[in-house]
């Protein structure tokens, strides 16, 4: 039985803001990312489609094969000739009953390209330079088809991305509670708001990459890939190559950012590189093949997110209480839907935020376009949902001439109403039930932090100086820690050091530190004596992955469970030797001690000695093993076997945590902006955040996660926008044209505070934090700009040129004025 956090009164590490242990290695250049590996491997490059929508009528690779240094050139026909399984369409990772027309891509295009950047031919050569040169010599003939670009073009249905998908509608997702039509009919007031969130994309420092090594003697494959889910991509590749799972191993090395894009698996390139390594090894050419994505490939061949058009109709009373929330959205899912409907499920459920409308209805249409696929990007549909709700809240406040925070407070779910069941289904397939939260406390804190009550006077003083400043607020609830499970293995070595592993992967979240803090507490050792390994299937073979702010909740809980099992075993082993009942022992200072006795004193046992005694041996091969041989254990009860029934040798355990459902973090952001009256430049003057992720393992890491999320949120509000022309050509596929926030764009005046409402769904009372910083930023920034300018802001991101044009429209009377 595992103890809850409130029962663990000997904590020494959990909750401490200690410095991350992994940083020094990374900062001094000792990181090992994908491209740091496999320097002797053959290198792959891909011929990618320059057309958004076309039939491939002919492929001629003869000239490429003649290039010195080229070892192989592969097309889809080569896959079919080798294995039907390899040639099949990529898997639909998350099926859904309302996903009526799922379509996925292929490892190489079988005959029709559906977006610029799709891989058609793979070239393998001695280096990337040769491979790229050979790619340029591949001659492909195309027959152009009319491209479908943008949501409005997709939903008119005149041209189709996939001939057998009517209206380009991949799915119509719908759910509701209450009677929306009846509530709208009787509501004292109604409003309709039309909103637009542009397409964006995650831009990790490291793009995708995979390096595969085939062992001919063992008929086995080991591959390294920059992924968020090493165990799942291992299983996927094993299935593709028709191999036993135990003959395939996957390792995620240091990963330079994921942000959701690297949760997709397997990528076509992962299939191709793994398959090519086996193919070339069997031909006696080479056992190793590697591919590393360049930045343009990342733009045109990985994944995007965010793009939605939204229509929100609300019915409300004189106090601003939501009687009806009718939400329709059209989502651009790109050419394929390998990750299912997760983005729009999150949008249509997390749109509810911390509020309790009397009735609710959501209709989401996921549409195919001839553009790059859309999969989760940090926030994963939640920023769009929060934008819809928070913009509606501000519209209600303007209409009623009420304080925007007062309207929100009127609709808050109260602590005494928890757990709050909406009667809907969340992305984990489980009920949408908020477990804990106190949203009013968060609002009270944020108003104090940002100076909400004093701001009207500050705004008027700025206006007198010819300056425009505005204030905005955005509240959210984030579903975190979805299942189905994660596991962990913990072992105490005879040195007293602890080795622990989880299948969950790491992309910079500080897992090596925070997980070590949990294990160190449970085993009573110094956190520096705990080594954590993540994302290596050789160390832990069963896992789900890193996404949806689930690392701490899922693997953190699993580490706690496994470490508690080890602690119980250590007490049993030591108690037998010390003659003390296990329930009178505790683990402190690297020792097993009777309660109240100092570590190292007489009558205590070093944890390493307990590890020795836990493993009865026949042979003495070192000093430690001498203590564990059959004549040295001191066991006088000869009626029992050395290892009790049901026990296993060694001071180790494997534990799994599987939650009944997701837990729900929450928070509120507030921001003050200034808009230049001449240039329309938008500057953030102050930003404040109040966040509730339950009990915090390491507050420093929590704040780092919030900082990083905020930076990406600012990018989504003011800078990041993927631009396509009507032909499906990306117009800004480089960092010269795609804008990202630098350190200079992240506000210096950043105030972070926390509320703590522990979750009862996991043993440590934790909630997730990884995506929190990004979720409400566009909504809060839009509200602040709106407040500064006095007219509605309904489309994000917004640039100075966008704001300039909105001002002109307002001057022409095309945009209504809003009351302050």
List keywords for this structure.
820 residues; Aldehyde Oxidoreductase, domain 3; disordered N terminus; six-stranded mixed sheet; 3 domains; alpha+beta; Aldehyde Oxidoreductase, domain 4
Question: Care to give the gist of this entry?
Answer:
With 820 residues, this protein is an alpha+beta fold. The chain has 22 helices and 29 strands.
Unreliable stretches covering 5 or more consecutive residues: 1-11
Q: Please give the order of strands in the largest beta sheet.
A: 3-5-1-12-9-10-11
Rg computed from alpha carbons, rounded to a whole number of angstroms: 29 Å
* Number of H/I helices: 22
Helix percent reads: 25-40%
Strand fraction equals 15-25%
Describe this structure in words.
The protein is α+β, with helices and mostly antiparallel strands and 820 residues long. The strands form 7 sheets. It has a 7-stranded mixed β-sheet with strand order 3-5-1-12-9-10-11. Strands 7-15-14-13-8-29 form a 6-stranded mixed β-sheet, sandwiched between helices. A 4-stranded mixed β-sheet has the order 18-26-27-28. Helix 12 crosses helix 13. Helix content is 28%, strand content 23%. It folds into 3 domains: 5-31 and 483-657, Aldehyde Oxidoreductase, domain 4, CATH 3.30.365.10; 34-145 and 208-292, Aldehyde Oxidoreductase, domain 3 (Alpha-Beta Complex); 308-482 and 660-811, Aldehyde oxidase/xanthine dehydrogenase, molybdopterin binding domain (Aldehyde Oxidoreductase, domain 4), CATH 3.30.365.
């Amino acid at each position: 039985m595992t103890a809850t956090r409130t029962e663990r009164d000997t904590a020494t590490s959990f909750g401490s803001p200690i410095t991350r242990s992994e940083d020094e290695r990374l900062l001094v250049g000792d990181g090992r990312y994908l491209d740091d590996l496999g320097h002797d491997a053959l290198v792959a490059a891909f011929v990618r489609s320059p057309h958004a929508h076309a039939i491939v009528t002919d492929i001629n690779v003869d000239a490429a094969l003649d290039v010195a240094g080229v070892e192989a050139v592969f097309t889809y026909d080569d896959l079919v000739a080798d294995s039907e399984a390899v040639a099949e369409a990529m898997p639909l990772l998350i099926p859904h009953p309302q996903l009526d027309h799922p379509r996925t891509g292929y490892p190489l295009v079988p005959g029709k390209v559906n977006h610029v950047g799709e891989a058609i031919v793979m070239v393998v050569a001695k280096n990337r330079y040769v491979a790229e040169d050979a790619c340029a010599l591949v001659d492909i003939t195309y027959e152009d088809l009319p491209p479908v670009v943008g949501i409005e073009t997709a939903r008119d249905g005149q041209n189709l991305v996939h001939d057998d998908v009517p209206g380009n509608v991949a799915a119509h997702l719908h759910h509701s509670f209450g009677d929306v039509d009846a509530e709208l009919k009787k509501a004292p007031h109604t409003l309709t708001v039309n909103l637009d969130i542009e397409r964006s994309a995650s831009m990790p420092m490291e793009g995708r990459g995979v390096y595969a090594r085939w062992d001919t003697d063992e008929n086995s494959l080991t591959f390294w890939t920059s992924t968020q889910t090493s165990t799942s991509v291992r299983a996927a590749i094993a299935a593709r190559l028709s191999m036993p799972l135990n003959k395939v191993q996957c390792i995620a090395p240091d990963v330079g950012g994921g942000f959701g894009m690297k949760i997709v698996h397997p990528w076509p390139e992962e299939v191709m590189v793994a398959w090519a390594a086996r193919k070339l090894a069997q031909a006696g050419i080479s056992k190793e093949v590697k591919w590393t994505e360049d930045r343009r490939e990342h733009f045109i061949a990985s994944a995007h997110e965010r793009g939605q058009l939204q229509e929100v109709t609300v019915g409300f009373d004189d106090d601003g209480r939501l009687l009806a929330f009718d939400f329709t959205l059209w989502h651009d899912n790109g050419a394929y839907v390998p990750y299912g409907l997760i983005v729009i499920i999150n949008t249509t459920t997390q749109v509810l935020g911390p509020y309790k409308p009397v009735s609710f209805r959501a209709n989401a249409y996921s549409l195919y376009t001839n553009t790059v696929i859309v999969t989760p990007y940090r926030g994963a549909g939640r920023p769009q949902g929060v934008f819809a709700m928070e913009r509606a809240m501000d519209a209600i406040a303007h209409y009623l001439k009420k304080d925007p925070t007062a309207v929100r407070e009127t609709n808050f779910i109260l602590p005494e109403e928890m757990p709050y069941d909406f009667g809907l289904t969340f992305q984990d397939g489980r009920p949408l039930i908020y477990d804990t939260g106190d949203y009013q406390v968060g609002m009270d804190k944020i108003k104090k932090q940002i100076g909400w009550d004093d701001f009207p006077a500050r705004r008027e003083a700025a206006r007198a100086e010819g300056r425009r400043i505005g204030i905005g607020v955005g509240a959210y609830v984030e579903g975190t820690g979805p299942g189905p499970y994660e596991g962990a293995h913990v072992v105490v070595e005879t040195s007293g050091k602890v080795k622990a592993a989880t299948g969950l992967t790491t992309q910079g979240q500080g897992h090596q530190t925070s997980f070590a803090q949990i294990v160190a507490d449970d085993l009573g050792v110094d956190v520096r004596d705990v080594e954590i390994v993540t994302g290596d299937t050789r160390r832990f073979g069963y896992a789900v992955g890193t996404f949806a702010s689930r690392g701490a909740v899922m693997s953190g809980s699993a580490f706690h469970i496994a470490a508690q099992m080890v602690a119980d075993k250590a007490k049993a082993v030591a108690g037998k030797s010390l003659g003390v009942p296990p329930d009178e022992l505790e683990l402190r200072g690297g020792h097993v001690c009777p309660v109240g006795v100092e570590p190292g004193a007489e009558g205590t046992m070093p944890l390493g000695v307990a590890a020795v005694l836990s493993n009865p041996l026949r042979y003495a091969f070192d000093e430690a093993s001498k203590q564990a041989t059959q004549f040295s254990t001191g066991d006088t009860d000869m009626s029992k076997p050395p290892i009790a029934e049901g026990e296993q040798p060694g001071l180790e355990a494997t534990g799994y945590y599987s939650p009944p459902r997701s837990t729900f973090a929450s928070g509120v952001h507030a921001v003050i902006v200034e808009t230049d009256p001449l240039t329309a430049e938008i500057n953030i003057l102050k930003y404040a955040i109040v966040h509730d992720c339950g009990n915090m393992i390491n507050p420093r890491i929590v704040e780092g996660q919030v900082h990083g999320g905020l930076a990406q949120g600012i990018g989504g509000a003011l800078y990041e926008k993927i631009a396509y022309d009507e032909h499906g050509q990306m117009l800004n596929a480089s960092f010269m044209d795609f804008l990202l926030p630098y350190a200079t764009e992240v506000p210096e005046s950043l105030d972070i505070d926390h509320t703590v409402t522990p979750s009862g769904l996991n043993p440590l009372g934790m909630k997730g934090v990884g995506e929190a910083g990004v979720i409400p930023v566009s909504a809060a920034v839009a509200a602040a700009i709106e407040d500064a300018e006095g007219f509605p802001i309904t489309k994000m991101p917004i640039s100075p040129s966008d704001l300039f044009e909105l001002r002109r429209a307002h001057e022409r009377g095309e945009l209504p004025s809003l009351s302050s």
